[in-house]
Design a protein that fits this description.
alpha/beta; seven-stranded mixed sheet; 6 helices; about 200 residues; three-stranded mixed sheet
């Protein structure tokens, strides 16, 4: 593989376009992924924000849930934002009926923990592994991490709550860095993909 990894953005629902732009700005090739054969071609994957229950059901409907689990278990680098963080959790505290997760990060997540849509906010967040000062995080009906397992590294907190974690090749943030024009978190993920491939 060249220094320009091919990174997919799971394009079932959510803010796909913004992630494609952020990844391209971080020197990756980026493309939407909707089907198992497209997933098989990429070096890494972003699971975007959106509605986690809807994404879970669409992943099952499109035949993507098992291939996603297999690739993540096999070590494919994956980055989840907001709803994507929920999908990467091993356990959700308050799952909706029929909601499944991909898993990959040993953490327990609380959905909509920071409040409803009208309580959305921006905050400066210091993220471990990201140089150059705090990242501007956009929190929209964001989850937080209630607890993590021994192998999961907490890389950011806000207001006393865990908002970013990393476990091996998996990265997750409660917030949306793709909405700010600051692509340093995406650059961190692109580096993670390069390190594996």
């Amino acid at each position: 593989m060249s220094d320009t990894p091919l990174i997919g953005v799971l394009a079932l629902q959510g803010d796909v376009r913004e992630h494609l732009i952020a990844l391209a700005s971080a020197d990756a090739q980026a493309r939407p992924v909707r089907r198992p054969e497209e997933l098989a071609e990429v070096d890494g994957l972003v699971i975007p924000g959106g509605e986690s229950t809807t994404m879970s059901k669409l992943a099952v409907l499109f035949g993507m849930m098992e291939p996603l689990r297999e690739r993540v278990r096999a070590g494919m680098p994956v980055y989840g934002t907001c709803a994507g963080m929920i999908l990467l959790a091993e356990k959700i505290l308050d799952p909706r009926s029929g909601q499944e997760t991909v898993g990959g990060i040993d953490m327990i997540v609380r959905r909509n923990a920071f409040g409803r849509q009208n309580e959305s906010f921006e905050a400066a967040v210091e993220v471990g592994g990201v140089e150059g000062g705090p990242v501007d995080g956009v929190f929209i009906r964001a989850p937080w991490v209630e607890s993590v397992g021994a192998e999961t590294e907490v890389i950011a907190e806000h207001g006393g709550h865990i908002v970013a974690v990393r476990q091996k090749n998996a990265l997750a943030t409660s917030f949306h860095p793709e909405l700010t024009g600051d692509h340093r978190v995406h650059a961190l993920f692109v580096d993670m993909v390069r390190a594996v491939n």
